[in-house]
Design a protein that fits this description.
Elements: H1 3-9, E1 12-17, E2 21-24, H2 30-49, E3 54-55, E4 58-59, E5 67-70, E6 76-79, H3 83-107, H4 110-115, H5 117-134, H6 136-139, H7 164-173, E7 175-179, H8 188-201, H9 210-219, H10 225-228, H11 259-272, E8 274-278, H12 287-301
Antiparallel strand pairs: 1-2, 3-4, 5-6, 7-8
Helix pairs in contact: 3-12, 5-12, 7-12, 8-9, 8-11
Length: about 300
Amino acid sequence: MSKDKQKQTVQTTGHAWDGDIQEFNNPLPNWWLWGFYLTVIFAVIYWVLFPAWPVGDGYTKGIANEIEYTTRDGKVVKTHWNTRALLQKDLMEARAQQQKFIEELNQSTAEEILKDPAKRAFAFSVAKVLFADNCAACHQAGGAGLAGKYPSLADDDWIWGGKYEHIEHSIREGRNGNMPGFAARLTGQQIDDLCEYVVSLSGEDKENTKVASGKALFSGEGGCVACHTSEATGNIAIGSANLTDHIWTVANINDQMSHAEKKQAIASVIQKGIARKMPAWKNRFSDTEIKMLALYVHELGGGM
Ligand code: HEC
Ligand code: HEC
């Protein structure tokens, strides 16, 4: 369209800049205009329904639905619609739901919880957090344990037994792992022979001549059988470790070590003895929390 023709069809505002720059006075498009009216209508409705305008020290509260919720201390709160109250209400509802679940778990036996997928999932999710906050400091993430210090809870080797009842007892009452030191009672030679025997129990160097004399000491002068049993398999009632399973919970031993290094680690345990303590949790957790934790730990590596 030429400039002249445009001048005929469209009005200008009448101003001119720099001699010939003019401003058209086009009407607003209808879609835009209606959009604008709608936003005005929307705003007015919004002001009436919801908190909107400041008035003095307060504000207009709106006439939308009231919100009602019960606080932690059982107070019923009724208030005008606002997002803070909505959040409170959601939180309190989630809490009530959780309370309900915990109440149900409280009434259920361990087997019932394991059989019910919803209860099980809830128990594990709570226990996982409890474990991370309270147990992982010693037993490490996922119960992996710390060689020589804190037993692994993720393998199926248990000092105090791996049945649900055993684990529950370990957590509720705590455990004391005690073995006397033998440095004063046995000679270095005797301890060395005992070490040969103990290492041989895990399948290493069985032919060594010292093994036989170590074995004799184990049931004789050493008196080890009193706690570790004549098969050296340990006794879960007193938490005496199984010495035949190739799994070490106190002696700081790993597979990369040489025979001599393994013996050294075992000798150190026999000389010094052991005083390890698993704290009791019965005063810190509810029965239901202990139940959830025991189920969780049992799942990590439980069984026999
Ligand atoms: C201060 C460190 C510490 C904390 C925290 C701790 N434990 Fe222990 N736990 C131990 C020690 C040490 C033992 C080994 C006791 C022994 O020598 O017989 C142990 C043993 C156990 C056992 C028995 C293992 C077995 O092989 O029979 C279980 C189960 C257990 N802990 C679970 C837990 C749970 C669940 C928590 C958290 C609620 C927890 N522990 C927190 C130190 C700790
Ligand atoms: C009074 C009971 C008692 C006597 C006696 C005893 N032990 Fe122990 N022993 C234990 C207990 C309990 C543990 C496990 C402690 C723990 O887990 O905290 C243990 C652990 C061990 C361990 C570490 C096992 C591991 O998995 O790291 C070795 C090795 C060991 N004993 C060897 C011996 C030998 C050898 C003798 C004899 C000289 C002996 N014990 C005598 C109670 C005893």
